Amino acid sequence: MTPTIIIDTREQNPLTFDNLPTTVGTLDAGDYSIVGLTHVVAVERKSIDDLLACVGRERGRFKRELQRLRAYRFRLLVIEGDAADLERGEWRSQLAPAHVLGSLAAWCAQYELPVWLAGDHDAAGRFVERFLYQAARCVFTEYSAASAFLTSSAGGLSLTTAEKELTVGA
Description:
The chain is of the alpha/beta class.
């Protein structure tokens, strides 16, 4: 199993992935996903400047994006910075570090959104590649187990029988 990463067409500064193939496509949510799993896997990437805009002037738009991300089983917000960068607050924006960190904490709680502070662009790419691989692996493992059960004597069904039973009365 070698998943292919989809990079959203609107991604302005794409991450680099060394181990998995990539393709470009339009995603409903996030900047990265996996071919065939775009309905369950979404990763949103933000530089610190992007994050500041999402905490400030683009907050309403970004909260709508976070609401869309809630529908994804595997979702992640990856920030190209670390906690020390955010605590120092060395940016031109008037936003205080406490405001930025408070927004991240609120989004984690309100949207059940994991946040990864990657450090920099290259480290973000390495982590996102690992996350996407593991999400695809998880789905593949679950699918394989379900398929094995349905075709075993314990499940008592073949996939075609199962499909027929699911469509009866539909």
